[in-house]
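During the first year of the project, the team set up a workflow for recording each protein of interest as an amino acid sequence followed immediately by a discrete structure-token representation. This format lets reviewers and collaborators read both layers of information side by side without switching files. As required by the reporting guidelines, we include two representative entries from the current panel. The first entry is reproduced here exactly as it appears in our internal archive.
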Amino acid sequence: MMKTLPDGPKTPKLLQQLHWLVDPMSYLEGVAQKPYRDFFKPEPLGLGPSPLFISHPKALQQIFTDTKSFTAPGDLNQIFRPFIGDYALVCLSGKSHRRQRQLLTPPLHGDRMAVYGELICNHASSAFEQLKMSQTFLAHTTMQEIAQKVILKVLFGIRQEEQTERLRKCVKNLSDIFNHPLNYIWMFFPVLQRDLGPLTSWGHFYREREKVDEIIYGEIRERRSSPDDSRTDILSLLMAARDEEGQPMSDVEIRDQLMNLLIAGNETSATGMSLALYWIHNMPEVREKLLAELDTLEGNFDPATIVKLPYLSAVCNEVLRINPIAITLMPRLVQEEVELLGYSLPPGTLLIPCAYLTHQREDLYPEPKKFKPERFLERKYYNYEFLGFGGGSRRCVGNAFAMYEMKLVLATILSKYKLELVEQKPIKLQRRGLNITPVGGVKMVLKGQRSRQETPVAATV
């Protein structure tokens, strides 16, 4: 006999919507205390039909692997289209999605990563060389600067610094729209996506997006008129890429994929790295173990060696576990009646995998509120248990690059500089568009240069 799904929260629809939009973590925390922790169906939250939120790892495993019963249509990701266009990876389905993913994967994995290592370390060092001693700075702002410069260089490889800076400023202006919820309320209410002038939130966004598009299409035209096989940036690689039928990508397809990577590789990376600095400096024992491991490098800052450091890897994973940047994953759709953990789901059921609630499960992560990198050294977590980069066919195509960047930036900064948190208090998170960022930006102070310990303590646990 099939079980009956619990109805979910009984709070009035409008209050649920406001709670979800303003403070999604608090909303989910409240749900997690109820009997419907594994599955719950709230009132519609601006996503069309009322979705079924799912956090049970076995259910997620089935959803990610049974692609006949569960699909991930790009049409369900309409909320991204104003930013990244119709041909971006997250907005595609089926053959088109597989084609674009096949073209995008090589530049962001494998041997290509070595090309970016020195670039990442240099930008991290440069950003901190500009800070003054005993100066208070916002970790999130500094990490944004690093992430922006890295992703722009990796994506475009623009050789004129003036053009690079122009693009960086335009991207920053576009990103700054998320500084206040009223600036992007149209994301959740498409009826507001009307150009009523530059003083309206949509009108302002539309004009800032056009400035970015102008530069991107200008670069594409220049590359097409003057091909250069020596270039290794992703724009050049995408222009040279061919699918299984030998067809190249159109200008619009290239633009949309670049915008996809630009948005995903900027804000999310900056947030992950700033949260890492918070947790490392909020937990003295974690900081000491990590510094001891970094000191074993003895000045040999080979990126390939750094990214294999076990404790550094565990710290980065735990950051994304305790504070997932995307608290929910791409929605799935039930194609045919299916049984999921004893529940019968009819066709058309909308499913939302919830990374935040999965990462807060006591049965999966004991003491989930504690920052414990050791858990990732003690056991292996599968991609339906650890959801830092999504799962299944919608797993982030840039996951390898994002983790590579995070490790190298942290290793570069922590090895060279002594930092302290300005305030020793629990971190608070807030919605910033579709992502989560730290309230206040993580205030830190630069205390000075750091030298390697003469006798490093053991970095193992």
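The second entry, processed by the same pipeline in the following quarter, appears below.
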Amino acid sequence: MAKLKLGPIVDEKPVKVTVELPAILHRNLTAYAEVLGRDAGTPPIDAARLIVPMLERFIATDRGFAKARQSERRLKPEA
């Protein structure tokens, strides 16, 4: 079993977004989806479904972003 940063993909109500990706990124997303599905014992996930959890994970683990948001909150007066 591969140690991936993403866990199982939650099936939520989808929101349609149009994004252009470089071909290599799409191939890598597809390969990641295949590994994720294989590790979970499920069919491969559509690569597009990985974009949101990957972005969420990236934002959640970005220390610089967390510090910037924390500074922003301290500067804003509470309503």
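For the second entry, the following points were noted during internal review. Residues 23-40 form the longest helix (18 residues). The mean pLDDT is 84. Both points are flagged for discussion at the upcoming steering committee meeting.
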